[in-house]
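Hi R.,

Quick one: here's the SH3 domain-containing protein sequence you asked about.
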Amino acid sequence: MKKGFYVALAAVLAFSMAGCSSKKDTSGSTPDKKAEAVGEVDGSLKSFTNGTLVITDEKKEELSFKITSKAKFTCKNMLAGDNVTVIYDGKIQGTNTANAVVTEVEDKGGKTTEAKQQEIVGTLKAYSNNSLTLKTNDGKEYVFSIVGAKQVYKNGIEPGNWIHVIYTGTINGTDTSGVKVVEITDDSDNVKQEQAKVAIKDVNEAVWATASVNVRDNYTTNANVLGTLAANDEVTRTGTCDNGWSRITYNGNTAYVYGDYLTTTAPPAPTQPAPAAANPQPSQPAQPAQPAQPAPTGDAGNTADAGDAGNTGDTGDAGDTADAGDSGDNMRVDGGYVVSLTADGVLTLDINNADYAFNITNAQQNYTNGILVGNEVTITYTGDISDSLNAVVYTVTDADSNTDNQSRITGTVQGASMNSFELATDDNAILAISTDGATINVDGLTEGSRVTVTLDLSQTVSESNLFYAAQVDPE
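And here's the predicted structure, written out as tokens:
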């Protein structure tokens, strides 16, 4: 605040605020702004999670503020590293902010050097509508909110796929709450460079597959498939990578499997049924001889089609990539609205007011601003839509930019101010949401309440970590 404002405020409230007075300070010391009854403090935003705002002040000390409904936010980006001013009632003693009640937070944005895009590369560990977990070559895991991010997956979203995340803001340790993901891709030079840096630690141990999984000739999901392991199959692991992949011996050769599908715990031995007691059988009368049967004529209607999907392996195997010519079905294209996306890659779409679930683990995907509930997408596949889970999906793309206030997100309120709140989704994304101009259909945005937010994506800025609500409803 300006100096004149403090002088006027001091006169009205009859406070002695030496730091804002026009009189010369004769005490010989400079008053600490953080000790004022009504004051402000400038700093660099570190994080805003669980209703707590953390900044680093000019003395390089961390200050944590609990944000309540009394606080008003004036936000630009809400990115880690932004310059912020916290205005409060009460006192701050040292780094103790317990007696400070925040009335306003002004986010002034970041410095030019801090606002530039940064990047991180690793393997995909988990993926859902609103977040993804990435594991880097040094074994660290990062959970990113991906709401509103452009996403292009050439090799699908199978765990173990190498991805390149471009973001703004600053990651503190493994805390990504202060960053905004701008774009994600699995096809870049950065990915290839990180793959070349993988270090493998030698081991020699028996492991068992926890589910059906592909065996590949390299530690990436776009490598050649050498075969598959069925659940409970045993192999020898000869090496581990910090990014999650395992090296194994398969049919006498070196191969790779993503480590989340392997365990060192042997499955329980199958129980053998007790032999049935022998019962005397009555003698059977002799059977009359049967007439000879004519040889089959080769009629295609009476023989099994060698390419029949019913005679092949499970098409729903997350590790399998189908051959476009296998099914014999024509390619189909449908448009629908996202209902859900589960962690195992099952996308449910509302197509003509009916829900259909598709496995999109290996499909090429291209989203302008994420795959939020309510987004309109186009899906291409082969197979029967009545058996959509076993259809072979080739592509999933945005039907349009999805900015017409139909994208929704559900979660738990972690903290709220006069004009914004923090929302934590069930898949570990954390969003700062502005309610300026929004229709609020709940009694109050209290901490712990469950709400569904209809987002106004037309106001979202790609470099900003602040989202805008068009409407807030009870879950």
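The CA atoms of residues 166 and 448 lie 31 Å apart.

Cheers,
M.
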